[in-house]
Design brief:
This protein has five helices and eight strands; from the N terminus they run H-E-H-H-E-E-H-E-E-E-E-H-E. With 180 residues, the chain is α+β, with helices and mostly antiparallel strands. The strands form two sheets. It has a four-stranded antiparallel beta sheet. A four-stranded antiparallel beta sheet has the order 5-8-6-7, with no helix packed on it. A hairpin with a 2-residue loop joins strand 2 and strand 3. Bound molecules: zinc ion. Zinc ion binds next to loops.
Length: 180
Amino acid sequence: MVRHKGALSSWAIDRYFPHQVALPSDDAFRTRYDEIAALAKDLLAAPLGHSVRHEGQWYTVYCFTDPESANTFRERFDGVPFNPKDRGKGTDWSRWRKLPWNREIKLRELPDDATFAHLTSWEELYAYCLACGHIGFVDRQALNGRINGKTRLRSLERRLRCSKCKIIGDSMFGVASAPR
Ligand SMILES: [Zn+2]
C-alpha cells in the first residue's frame, strides 16, 4: 500500500483510513495547527491529508484507521465527520457533496435508492444547490404526475436547476420534517 516517497493515493487513503474528520481551515485552525498536527500524529492519521470545500469554506481532512481515533480527534477540535463517498468525482474532487448542517432548515440526506414512494406525507422535499448554497422548496404535488413513482430521486439530481443561480445539475435533494 505504501508507494514511493510514502505518498498514498486517495484510493488507498479511503481504503485503509476510512474514518475521516474535516476541520475548517480558518484562523482557529492556523492558531492551533501544531496541536492539531501533534494529535493527528499520535492517533496515526494518514500522512497525507486532503482538502475539500463546502459553501466557500475549505476544510482539511484527517484520515484514521479506526472510529475511536477519529472521534477523539473530532471532539477535541470540533470537527465534522467526513464520508469519503461525499467527495466530488473527477476534476470536481475537492467538492464536498454534503447537505448544510448549520442552517435553519435541517435537511436529511435521502437514501441512494429513495423514490417518491419513500417520502412520507410529513416530509418536505428540498433541493440544495452546491454551487451557491441556496435551499429551494420542491413542490411534490407538481412533480407527482410528471415523474414515475419508481424513479430514484437521486437520478433526478443532475436535472435540477437552481432557482437562484440557475446552474443545472449541481444540486442535491434533502428532506425535512414539515412543521406541525
Ligand atoms: Zn444555486
